[in-house]
Write the structure tokens for this entry.
Amino acid sequence: MSLPVALLTRKEIFSACHRLHSPHLSNEENAEIFGKCNNLNGHGHNYVVEVSVRGPIDMRTGMVMNITELKEAMKIVIFENLDHKNLDKDVPFFKSVPSTTENVAIFIWDNLKKVLKQPELLFQVKIHETNNNIVSYRGQHTGQRQMDKKNCCQRGNCTNVSSDSD
């Protein structure tokens, strides 16, 4: 008989600032793609992060995972690395990767995988950047982590991909 499966989610809020700017694009391309979010001085958010784990409910404990373990992993990954930081200047990962909410979700996912005792239970990282803009990430599925935005624009498919857009 298979065990019942449940989804367990914990929510945290952290504050950080960033500038949407890609080192792989010219200043003109950055301004065209990211618009007002490419402001030289950046801007900030109160990010709401939901981390979900999915797995069988342990018959002995009645839990998928001890919520304390998930809370501690999120503390290490989110609060120690991202909270009250300038993502572009204080977090090495974003030195060569644009600090879009999509990439923040990837950063959180990759680092949670490193600290969770059962990383295979990680199901989703969901980030509410604003009330209207939400990114969900469930791990790498395509084999290509990031789309080459410069090539996209050269093919004439350029649109404002800013996660801060209204």
